[in-house]
Amino acid sequence: MRVGHELPPLEIPITRTLIVAGAVASRDxxxxxxxxxxxxxxxxxxIFMNILTTNGLVGRYITDHFGPEARLRAVKIxxxxxxxxxxxxxxTGTVVAxxxxxxxxxxxxxxxxxxNHVTGTVRVxxxxxxxxxxxxxxxxxxxxxxxxxx
Length: 150
Known about the structure:
Strand content: 25-35%
Helix content: 10-25%
Largest sheet: 5 strands, antiparallel
Low-confidence stretches: 142-150
Mean pLDDT: 89
Number of helices: 3
Structural class: alpha+beta
């Protein structure tokens, strides 16, 4: 692994199912993550993804690239533009530091049609044998429901 290495982009379709399932799985019952009418009453055009779902997707992006032995050591993210249903978030990453012990820091950006949804850095510990580039990962998150609600 070297500074400047770019991870392949990962496209994630933002569906209602993904937004609601992520909120429920993380026990975030705020109505803006599952009730479109309540979200509109609070000034949003629709429901939107919560930060815990975003955090999980960023972690998945990193571990899919570096492999099952990779260990997330720190995830520091900031949200920007909301992820609304019907959009696609594209995660990209660039290695910005590699320590002597193989711990790697990756700058991550998740952009959608509105702007940058998430920016930040992830520090990941890599076993010595897996400090090379891994094969590309699938380009989309499968829908949680067959036939999905895209």
